Amino acid sequence: MSGMQFTKWVACWGNATSITDRKESVYSKDITLRYPIRMCFAGNKLRFHFSNLTGTEAVTISEAFAAKQVDKGEAYTPTAITFDGKSAGVIPPGQEILSDEISLEIVAGETIDVSLYFADFVQMNAGTLITGPLSSGKYSYGNFAKSEELPADLTRNTNWFYFLNTIDVLTEEKNFALVCYGDSITAQDWPDYLSLRCAREGFNNVSIIRRAVSGTRILRQYDCITYAAYGLKGATRFPIELNVAGARTVIIQHGINDIIHPVGTEINPFRPWSDMPTTADLIEGVENIYVNHARKLGLKVWSGTLLPIFGWRTYNESRDVIRNEFNQWLRSSEKFDGCVDFDKTVRDSAQPEKFAQGFDSGDHLHPSAKAYEAMAQCVPAEILR
After folding, report:
1. What are the tens digits of pLDDT across the range 253-305?
2. In angstroms, what is the C-alpha Rg of the chain?
3. Nearest-10 crossing angle of helices 369-378, 190-201
4. What 3-state DSSP class applies to 204?
5. For 270-291, b where at least 16 C-beta lie within 10 A, e where not — what string?
6. How far apart are CA 72 and CA 245, in angstroms?
7. Among 130, 150, 128, 126, which residue's Cα sits nearest to residue 139?
8. pTM value?
């Protein structure tokens, strides 16, 4: 890293934080969480954002460490993540905290393990579910936060990312962050494939920051434990999730759940027809909630079109009319700096209401892995330069 000047904090990895799925057990104790994070930038300092945004009780991180993954035979050397000089950090309910800066020489492309240990009972109510080739973690019963190897008999994989929200690196001035904002489509694989594309094609100055929560809507949210994990509404989420160091551009791909969720209280008491938006409602929401706030932050704003839904369990033609009208506005509105036309990329050219062959995951709403790769590939290079 000779000759590099590290002068700018930029987010190099990030998630949203939302309400976790309400299962029978909502507390853990004496547990280690480990998340391997690919570092896209070189740098010499790190700082870590931890979120208890949707928690109702304080969360105490007993200790936390960052350690580079190493080849066999090399020393695994955890560096303590501290909070006001202390090993333990307390995240108040409904809030986020920032760790102390730690010194750690980072080479672009290497992976660090972020390990968190919770000694006492902790409410596991703040996190999000994400998938993709770069997105998986582990949890172990016991304290193994400083161990290179986690014990196989006490460890399981997880795609729930609890509390760890964003990692910033002190890096070169030329580096910047691209925020991918949305729902389950974005909580799944395409942002990871975009990160891999950037590395493969030499877009080395951009990080891909995922701010996505499955089930979320622009205009509304649920206030029941059945659908609590479907997350916060746009007006609540967006100002918090756009707090991204070094951000330059945001891609917004959101709104399909507003269209497909309502079914009537005779079918589901939590999904009344009164929740059904018009196209004008969606447009007004995106303008007022998303675009206006992003512009105040000085960000470029790109729209992302909504994907086909033919065959989804609540599909009907009237819902698809709204989707197509909304997509047409997303493609043409001067409110945006441009449009990432995900719909055109994954739809069948002969039957555009459907996914193309091989691009449907099987539920007729979420893309296949092949389609997610195509979505990442269709992001214009000008956003990544």
Report:
1. 999 999 999 999 999 999 999 999 999 999 999 999 999 999 999 999 999 99
2. 21
3. 50
4. coil
5. ebeeebbbebebbbebbeebbb
6. 34
7. 150
8. 0.97
